[in-house]
């Protein structure tokens, strides 16, 4: 029952949220701690992506990159409400203020299903430490020429570090292998 499965994924994210809140309330050194969550679980022929915060999931297939997740930031909320232009959100002081986070004042897990049957489909999970320094066009270009998932992650990491790497940079990638010619 897919509906039940999706609800269980949301509940698991909320359990993580509760655990972080409990730890923070019992340990003064952990007060105010919070984190983002983006994970993918493949159950052929689907990948289920669970997201809270502004770490992202991208899907690359057929030569095109698409952002699967929506940044849960104050700036993105303002864009959605029409109060801020999308291009202004990139430089907004609210661009990295989380509206939803594990351990934050609010956690709103979103589950998205991706069809991964097309051979060669690449799923990329990354923190904003990558997307602060590497454009979506560059992620797409490297995804299109990737030699392996490890190569793609190392290549993107090197590019972000060359440009300053001012934040935690986490990158995971997986690919459904293309059929042999």
Low-pLDDT stretches are none
Number of strands: 7
Overall geometric form: globular
Helix and strand run = HEEEEHHEEHHHE
- The N- and C-terminal alpha carbons lie at a distance of 37 Å
Structural class: alpha+beta
The total of helices stands at: 6
Helix content: 25-40%
Query: What amount of the residues lies in strands?
Result: 15-25%
Radius of gyration: 17 Å
- Largest sheet entry: 4 strands, antiparallel
What is the typical, i.e. mean, pLDDT? 93
The order of strands across the largest sheet is: 4-3-6-7
Task: Characterise this structure.
Strand 3 (56-61) and strand 4 (64-67) form a beta hairpin. The chain has helices at 2-26, 74-80, 86-89, 128-131, 136-144, 149-162, and strands spanning 37-43, 46-52, 56-61, 64-67, 110-115, 122-126, 171-175. The chain is globular and about 45 Å long. The model has no long low-confidence stretch (mean pLDDT 93). Helix content is 35%, strand content 22%. The longest helix has 25 residues, at 2-26. It has a four-stranded antiparallel beta sheet with strand order 4-3-6-7. The protein has a three-stranded antiparallel beta sheet with strand order 1-2-5. It starts with a helix and ends in a 6-residue tail after the last strand. It has 181 residues and is α+β, with helices and mostly antiparallel strands.
Quick take:
The chain is built from six helices and seven strands; from the N terminus they run αββββααββαααβ. It is globular, with a radius of gyration of 17 Å. A four-stranded antiparallel β-sheet has the order 4-3-6-7. The protein has a three-stranded antiparallel β-sheet with strand order 1-2-5.
């Amino acid at each position: 029952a897919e509906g039940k499965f999706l609800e269980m994924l949301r509940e698991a994210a909320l359990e993580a949220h509760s655990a972080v809140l409990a730890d923070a309330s019992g340990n003064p050194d952990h007060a105010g701690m919070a984190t983002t969550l983006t994970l993918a679980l493949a159950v052929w022929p689907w990948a289920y992506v669970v997201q809270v915060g502004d770490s992202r999931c991208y899907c690359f297939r057929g030569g095109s990159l698409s952002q699967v997740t929506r940044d849960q930031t104050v700036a993105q909320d303002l864009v959605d409400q029409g109060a801020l232009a999308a291009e202004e959100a990139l430089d907004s002081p609210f661009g990295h203020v989380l509206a939803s986070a594990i351990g934050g004042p609010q956690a709103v897990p979103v589950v998205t299903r991706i069809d991964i049957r097309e051979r060669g489909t690449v799923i990329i999970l990354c923190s904003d430490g990558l997307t602060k320094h590497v454009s979506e066009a560059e992620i797409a270009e490297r995804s299109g020429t990737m030699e392996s998932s490890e190569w793609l992650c190392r290549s993107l990491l090197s590019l972000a570090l060359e440009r300053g790497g001012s934040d935690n940079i986490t990158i995971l990638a997986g690919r459904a292998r293309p059929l042999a010619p």
